[in-house]
Design goal:
Helix content is 5%, strand content 41%. The chain is mainly beta and 131 residues long. It has a 7-stranded mixed sheet. A 3-stranded antiparallel sheet has the order 1-2-5, with no helix packed on it. Strand 7 and strand 8 form a beta hairpin. The structure holds zinc ion (2 copies).
Length: 131
């Protein structure tokens, strides 16, 4: 399936993805849990397929390799970008179009929080794995 629309909670940022997206990957690393407040999850798309508009988009360099895009007005956690990959990860919770897929991988499970259980039968990776 291709063609997805989404927006942040306040609506100041809207985006479209005109190409396909990948699997839903849930990341349990400390930084994702801090940035999202719980567990971050995302689907990847090609940068060329992603069109974003809105003046409140802000980027935080969460490491030397990656930045996270969020709405400076409402705080919605929207994007994760590993530099120089040509791809952006988009939070499934801000995509309005049905994704018709569920979490396919848990990554960085070695850093998972103690406030939930990984109780599904989805593959778990201690570190990154292919995201
Ligand atoms: Zn917003
Ligand atoms: Zn993470």
């Amino acid at each position: 399936m291709t063609g997805f629309n989404g927006r942040c909670a306040c609506g100041a940022i809207v985006f479209t993805i005109t190409g396909p997206v990948g699997d839903v990957v849930a990341c349990h690393c400390r930084t994702c849990r801090r940035a999202s407040g719980f567990v971050w999850a995302a689907v990847e798309c090609a940068d060329r397929d992603l069109s974003i508009s809105g003046d409140t988009l802000a980027w935080w360099a969460s490491s030397e390799q990656a930045s996270r895009g969020f709405c400076a007005a409402c705080g919605s956690s929207l994007f994760f970008k590993l530099h120089e990959t040509g791809r952006t990860s988009v939070a499934p919770g801000v995509i309005d179009t049905p994704l018709t897929r569920t979490v396919a991988r848990h990554i960085f499970c070695a850093e998972a929080g103690d406030y939930y259980r990984l109780a599904d039968d989805v593959p778990q990776h201690a570190a990154g794995g292919a995201a």
